[in-house]
Every structure is written in structure tokens, then in C-alpha cells.
Amino acid sequence: MTTVRDVERFLYDWAPAGLAAEWDNVGLLVGDPEREVRRILTTLDITEAVVEEAIGAGVDLIVSHHPVMNCAWHPVQTLRTDDRQGRILTKLVENHISAICMHTNLDAAEGGVNDILAKKLGLLDTEYLNEEKIGRVGTLKCELPLVEFTRFVVKSLACNGLRYTDCGKPVHRVAVGGGACGDYIAQAVALGCDTFVTSDLRYHDFLDTKELNLIDAGHFPTEQVIVPELCRRLQAAFPAASVSTSTSHRCEVIQYCI
User: Fold this and answer.
1) Are the CB atoms for 139 and 172 separated by under 8 Å?
2) N or C: which end of the chain has fewer CB within 10 A?
3) 113: Cβ contacts below 8 Å, ≥ 6 apart
4) Whether the Cβ atoms of residue 98 and residue 60 lie closer than 8 Å to each other
């Protein structure tokens, strides 16, 4: 019998808790560690739609990248159904659905978010972008004009569009950071990158950065790449369970198009 604890241990073997940022909230956040797991749903976020999908499919456990609750940005002081997070947590508990979340530890882990992102974008000979192991740096097989590379990013990550700025350099040595990694622009510059692909960049990031091309490909597309890998690894590790990927959680926000 596979339990919630078994799945958590497996995920921690891949992405140890020690890799998570101090402010992060990872691991089993909702549910009984000893509950049997027959059906698992993987997703980037645990939204209300994802919970309804899980209920309809008879799911025992949701495994997500983003924490269903994180006191760094959403203090959990009440559990009320007139609050979005309260509704999500209440429905999980009422329907005996557990939630395991692997966030910044999965960003940093070998074979995690940033390794998958780098692979998706064709980067070779990758190395860490920073000491926290968040982000990767690598080189393309051949140099590309920036506009051609942006089109490749859109196709590879299934973006609705993206924002970018041109520093006048072709693309060859590239840094990637899944999610919001704008704070690491200086590290990308120091490592000799001509291009940085990440998300949630600020107006002044684009205005002030002259040393490399910046590409904001969106938070969802740069991190959604990990969800199929979560599904694949969990199914291989727990063949008796049924593991699937959420179909209700999609990136539907139209960004700036090329």
C-alpha cells in the first residue's frame, strides 16, 4: 500500500527540504500522512478548479509546485469559505484530499524546474546561476538572432506571448530562471550571459538592463515544464497508483505578443 508519507519521502529524496528557501512552505501541507494513495493529480498550482477536478476524479493526493498556503505572502489566520484560500483548504479537508507542495527545493533540485527549463530551451553544458542553485546557465548549439530565439521560446514553452528587450547581442550563452528570478540579473551578467529568460520582470528591469537581452516568458510557462516530469516520476515510482496531470489549470492570461 502506498501512503501519502511514501510519496512525500520520494519527493524529498529528489528535492530535499534543505534546498528550500527559509521563507518557503514545502512538503505535506494538508492531509493524513498515513492515508492510502490510489490516485494522484499533479499541477503547478492548487486552484479551486484543480480541487474540483480532483474531487470529480476521486483523487487522494494533489502534488503541486506552488504551496497551497504560504505564510510569506498569505498569512493563514482563519479558515473561512468566503475567502479563496479558505475555500480551497476546506474542500481539500472535507474530501480527504492531501496536498504535497515542492517549491523552491524543486527549483534548485537536480532534474527540477530549472534543469527541465534549460533542456526545453536547448541549453548545453549547464551550470548553476547562483549559490542557491536557483536558475541555470548554458549555451545554445549555435548562435541565434534574438527575434528567432524569442519565437523558439514561445514554441518550446507554449507561451501566449512574451516581453523582451534587445541589448544588441545575438543569443548564445543563456541564463534561465523558472518563475520570478529578476533579482538574479546581475549574476547572469557576471557569468557572461547575453540573454536571460525568466518571468515577472519589472519595468525598471527592462529599462536599466543594458548588458544582456531580457525575456519575460511568463510565470506559468517557465514553471509548468516541471508538471509532466512530476507526473512521470511519480508514476514510475508508484506504478500501482494512477497519476495524471491537471487539465483544468492552464495559462490563459494574454501577454505581450511578438
Assistant:
1) yes
2) N
3) 65, 106, 107, 178, 179, 223, 225, 226
4) yes
pLDDT > 70? residue 190: yes
C-alpha dihedral, 257 to 153 to 177 to 200, nearest 10° = 10
Q: What is the pLDDT of residue 69?
A: 85
Contact 71, 232 (CB under 8 A): no
The residues near 147 (Cβ < 8 Å, ≥ 6 apart) are: 258
Q: What is the DSSP letter of 38?
A: S
Closest CA to 48 of 81, 74, 76, 96: 81
- Band (94; pLDDT cuts 50, 70, 90): very high
Answer yes or no: is pLDDT of 116 > 70: yes
φ/ψ of 253, rounded to 5, equals -85, 120
CA distances from 8 to 162, 212, 233 (A): 35, 39, 13
Q: Over the stretch 134-156, which tens digit does the pLDDT of each residue have?
A: 999 999 999 999 999 999 999 99
Q: What span, in angstroms and rounded, lies between the C-alpha atoms of 166 and 195?
A: 9
